[in-house]
Structures are given as structure tokens and as C-alpha cells.
Design goal:
alpha/beta, Serine Threonine Protein Phosphatase 5, Tetratricopeptide repeat, Rossmann fold, 7-stranded mixed beta sheet, 14 strands
Length: 581
């Protein structure tokens, strides 16, 4: 009996000591947390972080662990140590996915992303919060911020991707409503109305369905949206095969167009909208789109198509309309002549040949030139335009040699040119395949014809120039694009564009962006008058873009080209040139 009593007393004593130790540790943690909190409240964020770290690292998981993660993140955010704050929040979310502080952590992450202008990640974090929270206050705040970001700071394609994400099926109506509001805010009225109608049909009786119906009624009854808003129709072949990122040159052009219009709308109270249609590289589809666009009075201009054959079909489909149709990339000759309202923002082959003729004659001040061109492809068109213009200016074509594309040598042509070496001042060499460039250089080098070479854009992608520097260092050529990656304005634009779209601001993007950026100014200055839009485009006023400038001639073709030269492995910008210089 005495033994049992002694054992009982021992156990009680041991248990009491454990309880006392745990109680002491809890009190110590509480004391440290209180001190850390006081330091945070007084603005001593660095010291508070040290104490929060002590609670997190030295004490294992305890009753103050989760809240210490939150306050450590807040302190780091106050010190503008955003990356560390995000790392701490991600650690917390991974360790404690069921914590009562998860909503707060996600909201903090979203706001940190917004502060650093990373709107895509902010939007995605808010959508995660909306899909998981049980708190009405967090739900409403997250929806409000997501709408604000969605209407001007993220691309519509990002919102569309979230709508298609099966993980967010239960909040699909929320995402669709954000998308609809974004479309309307950015002036894409028709697409916004269509999305609102889908919400009201598919989510009838829900709060989002009721909100969509109210907005639908407001938009469709408001004459500002129905009649006065200026719209740009976009006609592009969007169904082309893409790379593993889902991107094509056409989708890059479209992202540039959308960003330019969104940028304009953020700065102006009167919005300009987009109606985007897929031509599908199909003539009947183009005719259907033309009939639709001509029936919408608010459509003032059309951007597209991008391919020359589609531009011809579009010209025929719009032959009874005054709507200006501007292709950002088509280059064939005589497209603009097929319809008085067709414009080519990308210089035609004829303009390219003529521009180099003007440049050689007036700037390089050379009168005696040889021509080397292939017997097929657009090299023929470039050579013909160059020869006609150069001779009209008073220059002489001393010799014209033709080669077969893909040839392994042009020695016989070079030998014939060699007999004129004493009078030749250079060669115009428009190639239709960049692989022909080293063959031509080799042939000229063999005959020691170290004369200036004037070329076309395909020389930009030619290989092997560094192997014949004696002659390639005399290379000057035209290009419809040149990007100055050191330009502060381009650097800022590129940063903002990537933040919003996750696309690099490459030349395809700039074909779309520069054209749309020019066009929204034209529409704004025309006060939405189609006749005045034509007058402004034909006024002879130029507009600078990142990749090229715009100045339409009497045939509605852009006259500007970049003049570039090759020097010791580097392509150097010379000037933007048009034949009126």
C-alpha cells in the first residue's frame, strides 16, 4: 500500500512538473509574441521580424506559429521586402492549408503582387481566394479587386483561361461576370453583352445572374453604348496551328492590338471598343464578317487581315462600304488599288524596291549600280521596282544578273559582273531566301568585287555574314521593323506589356500595337466620323511607332522603312526613311 502511494505521489509530481514546464513555455511564447507585436505596432519592423522568427524556428509548431507567419509577412511587406514576404506566405500556405488565416494570407499575397505591378499573379491569387473562402467580407473584397484588375490590367485571355479551368467550375459565373465587365470597360461592347447574356441564361436565379441581367439592361438601354461608342473591327485568322505555348504570330499581333486599345481606354473617358472575328482563312467567313461589320454603325475602321490573299477578299466584301480597312502586315503590290478604303501599314514590295533606289541615289549619291536577283519569288518584284525607280531618277543599271534560288554558287554571274568593276558603285541584291546570302557573298568575294551591297529585309536573317566581313561590312538593307531595345520608352512598354500578357513585346506584337496605337488617335481626332478618318489617314501626317513609322502615300501604302547596316557582327540602325526625303 505504501509502495502504491509512493508511485502515485511520484507520478503526480512528474505530471505537475510537465504541466508547469509546458505552461512556462507557453507563457514565454506569449510574452515574446506580445513584445514582437508591440514592436510591429510601433513601426520597429526589423526587430519584430527577429522575434517572430524566434517563435517560428526555435519553438517548433506552437499556438502562436500561424499568427507569427502572418505578422512576419506583414512586417516584411512594410519594409518593402516583397520577395521575402511572398516566400513566408507561401511557406505558411503549404504548411497550414486549413488555417483560419489562409484568407488573410492570400489577400496579402494579392496586394503585394499589385504593389509590384504583377497583376497576373495578383488576379490568380484573388481567384484562388474567391474559390475557397467561406467569409463574405473576404469574398466581396476579392471580387471587387479582381474586377478592378480585370478591367485594364490583365489580358482578357487570362480571364478566359480561368473560366475554362475546371478547378474554378463553382465560381465560373464570377469569372464570366468579371470578363463581361472587362470587355465593356475596354469598349468591347458586343462581346461584353454576349457574355452577360450567357450568364443570365446559365446562372438564372443566382446573385451573379441577377447582377448580369441588371448590367445587360443598363448597357443595352444606354445610347452611349448602343450608338455613340466607336468600335474597331478586327479580322484575323485565329485558328492557325500554334507552338507549345498556344501562341502564333497572329495571336501576338492580336495581343498588341488589344493592349493598345486598353491603354487608350485607361486614359480617356470616351472608350473605343474591339469586335474580334476569326476569318478562318475562308472566303465565305470573310463575307459573313463583312456583312456583320457593315451592319454595325459604331464600327469606324477594321484592322486586318494579315495575309495578302485575305486582304483582296476583304476588299471585295467591303466594296460598298466607307469603312477603312488597314492590314498591319500584307505586302503584295496593288492591294490598296483593289478598294479605295484599303490601307497597307506594311510597305508593299514596290515601295521597298523604290525606297532603296531613292536611298542609293539621294543619300548614298550613287548613279551606277548592278542588280543581282533570283528568277522567282518576291525578289523579282523588288528588282523590277528598284530598276524602274532608279532609272526614272536618272541612275544607270550597269548590269542585271539573275540566279536560281538554292544555287550552290553564282560564279558565272560574278564573272560577268567583274567586267564592269571599274564603273560599278555597288549592287542591289534583293533575296527571297536568306540561305542564298552566303552563296552570293562567296561568288562576289571570289572575283574580289568588294563593293557595297544594298539589300532587302531577308538579309536581316542571313547566316554566314561574319565569314566574309570584307564585303558584308558594306551591307545596307531595308526592313519593315527595327526594335531599339535600349529605348527607355520601349523598355517601359515592354515591361508593362509582359506584366499584363506574359508575352514578350516582339515584332509581331508591335505590328499590332503600333498600328492600333496610331488608329485610336485617328478615331479620337476624327470624333468618330468615318469620312474624317479617311481624311486624316490621307493627310500626309506621319506617326512614329516602336517598330516603324507610318505615312500613307496616295495609294494608301505606308512609305516608311528602316535603313539598317551590318558592321562586324552587329546590325546597326541608320534611319527611318521614306521616299519623300
Amino acid at each position: 500500500m505504501v509502495k502504491l502511494l509512493m508511485i502515485f505521489i511520484t507520478l503526480i509530481t512528474l505530471f505537475s512538473s510537465i504541466i508547469t514546464a509546458q505552461d512556462f513555455e507557453e507563457r514565454e511564447i506569449n510574452t515574446k509574441f506580445k513584445i514582437a507585436l508591440n514592436l510591429y505596432d510601433s513601426g520597429n519592423y526589423s526587430e519584430s521580424i527577429n522575434l517572430f522568427d524566434n517563435i517560428l524556428q526555435d519553438r517548433g509548431i506552437n499556438h502562436r506559429t500561424t499568427i507569427s507567419f502572418i505578422f512576419k509577412s506583414k512586417a516584411l511587406d512594410k519594409l518593402n521586402r516583397d520577395n521575402e514576404a511572398l516566400i513566408t506566405l507561401n511557406q505558411f500556405l503549404n504548411l497550414f492549408p486549413s488555417s483560419g488565416y489562409v484568407d488573410e494570407a492570400r489577400m496579402m499575397k494579392a496586394k503585394i503582387y499589385i504593389e509590384s505591378e504583377d497583376y497576373n499573379n495578383a488576379f490568380e491569387e484573388l481567384i484562388l481566394l474567391i474559390s475557397s473562402t467561406n467569409s463574405d467580407s473576404y469574398l466581396n473584397e476579392a471580387k471587387k479587386i479582381a474586377e478592378e484588375i480585370g478591367t485594364g490590367y490583365v489580358s482578357s485571355s487570362l480571364i478566359e483561361n480561368q473560366i475554362e479551368n475546371k478547378s474554378f467550375e463553382k465560381i465560373k459565373s464570377v469569372l464570366m461576370l468579371i470578363y463581361a465587365k472587362a470587355q465593356i470597360y475596354n469598349g468591347n461592347i458586343a462581346d461584353g453583352i454576349r457574355e452577360l447574356k450567357d450568364i443570365t441564361n446559365n446562372f438564372h436565379g443566382t446573385s451573379d445572374g441577377e447582377t448580369a441581367q441588371q448590367l445587360y439592361n443598363s448597357v443595352t438601354k444606354n445610347s452611349q453604348f448602343r450608338n455613340a461608342a466607336a468600335l474597331i473591327g478586327v479580322m484575323l485568322p485565329l485558328n492557325l496551328s500554334s507552338d507549345n505555348t498556344g501562341r502564333t504570330p497572329v495571336t501576338e499581333i492580336l495581343e498588341g492590338i488589344k493592349f493598345a486599345v486598353s491603354e487608350f481606354n485607361r486614359a480617356h473617358s470616351q472608350k473605343i471598343g474591339l469586335i474580334i472575328r476569326d476569318t478562318k482563312r475562308d472566303k465565305s467567313t470573310i463575307n459573313e464578317i463583312a456583312q456583320e461589320f457593315m451592319g454595325i454603325p459604331s464600327i469606324k475602321t477594321v484592322i486586318g487581315p494579315v495575309y495578302s490573299d485575305e486582304v483582296l477578299e476583304t476588299a471585295q466584301a467591303f466594296n460598298k462600304s466607307k469603312i477603312c480597312i488597314i492590314s498591319p502586315t500584307a505586302t503584295d503590290n496593288d492591294l490598296a488599288g483593289s478598294n479605295n478604303n484599303i490601307y497597307q501599314a506594311n510597305p508593299s514590295f514596290s515601295i521597298r524596291g523604290k525606297t532603296m533606289a531613292d536611298y542609293i541615289f539621294f543619300v548614298e549619291k550613287k548613279n551606277d549600280i548592278g542588280v543581282i536577283s533570283s528568277n522567282s519569288g518576291y525578289s523579282v518584284k523588288l528588282a523590277r521596282a528598284f530598276i524602274d525607280e532608279f532609272q526614272n531618277l536618272g541612275g544607270k543599271i550597269i548590269a542585271h544578273e539573275v540566279y536560281q534560288p538554292g544555287s550552290i554558287e553564282i560564279n558565272s554571274q560574278a564573272d560577268r559582273l567583274n567586267q564592269f568593276r571599274d564603273v560599278l558603285q555597288g549592287f542591289y541584291v534583293p533575296i527571297a531566301d536568306a540561305n542564298d546570302a552566303p552563296v552570293i557573298l562567296s561568288g562576289l568575294v571570289l572575283d574580289s568585287l568588294y563593293l557595297p551591297i544594298y539589300g532587302n529585309q531577308d538579309w536581316y536573317s542571313a547566316k554566314g555574314l561574319e565569314t566574309s566581313t570584307t564585303i558584308s561590312n558594306n551591307l545596307i538593307f531595308t526592313s519593315d521593323y527595327y526594335i531599339n531595345f535600349k529605348d527607355p520608352a520601349y523598355i517601359q512598354f515592354s515591361k508593362e506589356f509582359y506584366s499584363n500578357t506574359k508575352f514578350d513585346a516582339n515584332r509581331n506584337v508591335l505590328y499590332g500595337y503600333d498600328m492600333a496605337n496610331y488608329l485610336v488617335d485617328v478615331i479620337f481626332n476624327s470624333h468618330n466620323d468615318i469620312n474624317k478618318i479617311n481624311q486624316i489617314l490621307n493627310s500626309g501626317n506621319s506617326k512614329n511607332g516602336f517598330h516603324n513609322s507610318f505615312l500613307f502615300d496616295e495609294n494608301h501604302i505606308n512609305k516608311y522603312l528602316n535603313i539598317l547596316k551590318y558592321q562586324n557582327g552587329v546590325y546597326e540602325f541608320v534611319e527611318r526613311y521614306n521616299s519623300t526625303n
